[in-house]
Write a structure and sequence with these properties.
The chain contains 14 helices and no strands. It is mainly α.
Length: 456
Amino acid sequence: MKSLLIALQALGSRNGRDGCINFEAAKRTFQEWRFMQYELANVQSYNKTVCPACHTNPFAIHIDGNKKLFRYEKVGRGLRESYYSERVFAADNDVTNHLNHIESLKTKVLYGGRWQHGSGLTTGEETEQIFSYMSRYNSTTKNMLKAEREEELSESSFFWNQRKHDSLARVLASRFCKAKEAAELIRKELADLSLDEKQLLIWIAELTNLAQSLNKRSVSQNDVQKGIELVCDSIRTKKSQISGVAVSSKMRSRYRAKIEADRKKLRELIAVYNEDNTEKLSVDIDEEGNFPWYNDTPQPTDNVNLQEKRNAAEKLHMYNRTMKEQNVIQLEMKSYLDFYRKKLEEITQRLDDVQNKSAPPSWIIEEPGKYSIKKSSFQHVTSGLTALLLNMKKFYQIKLFEATNLFSEDREVEYNKFQTDSQDSEDSETDSDNSVVSIESQTDNEEMEETLFPLI
């Protein structure tokens, strides 16, 4: 901001304008101008904090509280409240109470999300992405007063959400194609295993029961050998993730801590095994993976090691996740189209309220201390309101047309179904309701049954 004002002042001096620009006045004016844009968007029924794909019911939630947005205690609170006044960020007391409630909860992870029935591959670590983006504002906002800091972070979140809105339809279509391709690839891999559904389900139940057993304080003698195999496989997997998945020293350190916890569990299991067997095991067994309880000619199903069982189970669960992901994305596509259809209906109603009524409609609210339309001046601003609403109506029509074209199976949608002219608006809305049959006919709001591998 300072650099911009210095450049403007130098430009003015070069063109014969004397005097300096007041930094505080310019900054306050710019903050009020940005908030005025937010208020105009509300008049247009455009809310950047709402996601069109999950505005009614999010299908997946990823939680991460590390935003890296610190604030010095020495910085004062300031005399004024933020313009947005809890429209974006919750009140301090509500946040404190929520954090106290979360800290009282205890959770324990039994197995990965891919083994959860009904889950897809939806989250995509978006929370990590937005917090990585928001953390860039730490150096400039940690010294700000409370109101200015909240306004700056609110505007930064609006910018992120605007970029998301602009690309959301393309992202949904791309995710659906990737999930469909992944499902076909995994289906072929499952077919190559030549295993029936019953055997795979038995292995999955065995692995799940074993994971539950290993989380107990004591492990039964029958589960000692399987527990050693499972922990060794976990160590090998984490070692490969250090070199192949971890992208930072922090992630590598986290994996090494998990490996050390697995080694501790492995030493306990080996001690139990060595007490009852003459053939002793060492803790280095995880490096080799050769277990003495398997003979040289194992049976194809009765004597398969846990690593092979786990790999087969992972493929099956991954196939189910990709199938569920397709169902979830179809529901998000339908929600996206419903969102913009409702917005189109709402903006059409607002146009009617402005053009055909002499009194301000209910959605025009006059707030003290805020930019708002006064009732006494309503008749003088109807032309401006009409222009704003017509511009947003065209925007909604284009978004609906683009999404329908991307989501439809044949990818061929006539543009005349979404006429951008204000005339014939009722006809264009009727056509838009009939143009998304390919999505609505495939999905509904009920929970879709998850099949194992129906194509095998």
